[in-house]
Amino acid sequence: MTVDRTGLARHEVPGAFDTGAAAYDRLVGANPGYHEHLRLSARRMRLPGGGRGLRLLDAGCGTGASTAALLAAAPHAEIVAFDASAEMLAQARRKSWPPTVHFVHSPVEELAASGISGPFDGIFAAYLIRNLADPDGQLRALRALLKPGGTFAAHEYSVRDSLAARLVWHAVCWSIIIPAGRVATGDATLYRHLWRSVLAFDGVARFRQRLAGAGFTAVHSETMTGWQRGVVHTFLATNPEEPA
């Protein structure tokens, strides 16, 4: 059993999100730039033609904020979005979506059993990889779902390489995120997990190495604007073309 520094077992993380689901949109909506930064990461995938003719996967879609960002970047694409938290997914499904968007309840480890199969032209994973028990194995599995030449984008916190970013993260968590989460839900477990899991996650350079180790090429990253500069990043990578 893999346990992170909060004491939460990885298989308990979806349950923590279930508990926080009803208040989740309200809390992240109070974060300046949260939705705009998701849209920025989706735009950085540079999906052509507004997504016309493309099939995209939103991995770990939560309440649908990342799905909306992907839809804004590629309004004509077919989007399959999945999440392991039933309550987060229920919040997503209550929103208005075009018929090209489909939601599936599934952990990332069981996509085939849940009817999700490739190939996809692009995969967007927001705040997912940090919460996986086997990030290397699941990155390889996600790459296997991509078409050759397809783009993978991870929108993720990464502060290990920067003392300034870690100090900002500590300050924001303990002055805003954890107290607000406790008030909104009566339980700060999810938000303490967020604080600790970000501190434990890869630095920017290490995560780029992890992506390369999973077989991706053209790996690079770009950060955000505002208070999340140096704290949240878009990691971009390509599934290499098949040999001629």
TrEMBL record:
Q: Which GO terms describe its biological process?
A: methylation
Any Pfam family: Ubie_methyltran
Q: Which UniProt keywords apply?
A: Methyltransferase, Transferase, Ubiquinone
The answer, when asked if Protease is one of the entry's keywords, is: no
Q: Name one GO molecular function term.
A: methyltransferase activity
Top-rank lineage group of the source organism: Bacteria
The protein's name is Ubiquinone/menaquinone biosynthesis C-methylase UbiE
This chain's source organism reads Amycolatopsis thermoflava
